[in-house]
Amino acid sequence: MSEQATELTANENGHVLDLIAGEIEEGNGFISFERFMELALYHPQLGYYTKNIKRVGKDADFITSVSVGKCYGLILAHHFSTILKTFSNFSKEVVVVELGAENGDLALDIMGELSMLLSKELFERLNYIIVEPFSLKRQALKARLSSERIGNISVISDLEKENNLYGVLIGNEVLDALPFRRVRLRDKKWMELGVGINRDGEKKKLIEAEKCIQNESLISRVADFPKELPDGFTAEVNINFKQLLSGISSSFVKLEGYFVDYGSSHDELMDLSRSEGTVRAYSGHQYVKNVLLSPGFNDITCNVDFDWFRASAKEHEFITNEPIDQYRFLTNAAEPWLLQIEKSGIQNVENMKLINQFKMLIHPTTMGRAFKVLKFQK
Ligand SMILES: C[S@@+](CC[C@H](N)C(=O)[O-])C[C@H]1O[C@@H](n2cnc3c(N)ncnc32)[C@H](O)[C@@H]1O
To answer: CB under 6 Å to ligand 1: residues?
Structure first.
């Protein structure tokens, strides 16, 4: 995703729907779903994720493990501290890189805890790097973090200039937010499913539109899809995982990375129960079925295809593990933290709050099973 690519059409007073409609008309009635998402979510001024609004939390559109409270960051800090100590034997500096930091809460929770878990000497050698591609979000993050002053935290636009990194990477609910393509089976042939427009006088309505697939990566991806799917079967494909992983791979010498997200195996996504795909939108904690209805005003997402992500990671010589339930990952990682809590008094009000957050993060009916943790390393 590039800020430059969309800046050309930026119009601060406009509505993102007008920009999308304009591009569809320039594109002879069709834009890819990926391009629709780039504009609806990431237009530099008008996109859902770039606007200055609250998106994550109980009083916003959706919750994430980060927004449940500090607990998530505290457990991750315990887990990361061991890795950072090991890597510090090989490099003067160590890093935690975070993608998709949104308002910076996770960075502050992790760094606050690491400042207590690591020696003063090692904490001074630690850089927490937030990668935020969008300038308005970078400014907001820098303003928030500069008032907190916990260790070395920097906010950069991409990993391009970073190299020789040793450390950890975390992306919580980032993979599902990356723009993806859609495909639909028609008469035994996969077509690209994009976005078109219906105009009725001044009124315009975005609609689904189909076109022969032209993108080479998409052509080679659908060639691997099962042959016996019914006509109309619809699926999502992210052809940008490789680009994301290439940037990460060239920056790190030694990495233990974690993407945490909702997702499925490729076979599960090709199951007949998912014949309409998994694309969906969220607004005010409500599921929105028609994802084309209010561009710029709701989140658009789909289940991550973990097998496809792992195959892309393998091409960049990462070793990946089978994704595990957040429940399993956090209960293992939480052990030292839970022992610490026990020592400081389980009845203490602050600790009781944290334990309640922990229950929410691991409970199978809330977040424990829906979210999976995918580890990749080099
Ligand atoms: C669903 S939100 C999750 C926010 C936060 N990590 C949390 O768990 O509360 C997805 C985030 O990923 C960010 N994002 C999308 N593409 C990105 C990219 N290429 N690099 C870094 N962040 C990205 C979005 O701007 C948004 O902040």
So the answer is: 1, 49, 56, 64, 66-67, 99-100, 102, 131-133, 172-174, 177-178
253: closest CA among 42, 117, 87? 87
Give the domains, in start order, of the chain with CATH numbers.
Answer: 14-378 (3.40.50.12710)
The DSSP code sequence of 180-227 is: -EEEEEETTEEEEEEEEEEEETTEEEEEEEEEE---HHHHHHHTTS-S
Per-residue confidence (pLDDT) for residue 149, from 0 to 100: 83
How far apart are alpha carbons 126 and 216 in whole angstroms?
A: 41
* pLDDT tens digit sequence for 90-144: 999 999 999 999 999 999 999 999 999 999 999 999 999 999 999 999 999 999 9
Alpha-carbon distance of 279 to 301, in angstroms, equals 6
The whole-number average pLDDT for the span 80-93 is 98
Q: From ligand 1's centre to the CA of 81, what distance in Å? A: 23
Where b means 16+ CB within 10 Å and e means fewer, 213-243 reads: beeeebeebbeebeeebeeebbbbbbbbbbe
Task: Say what the pTM is.
Answer: 0.94
Q: What is the dihedral of CA 206, 212, 214, 216, to 10 degrees?
A: 110
| 235 vs 282, higher pLDDT | 235
Side-chain half-sphere exposure of 5, counting CA atoms within 13 A: 9
User: Could you identify the atom of ligand 1 that is nearest to the CA of residue 171?
Assistant: 6
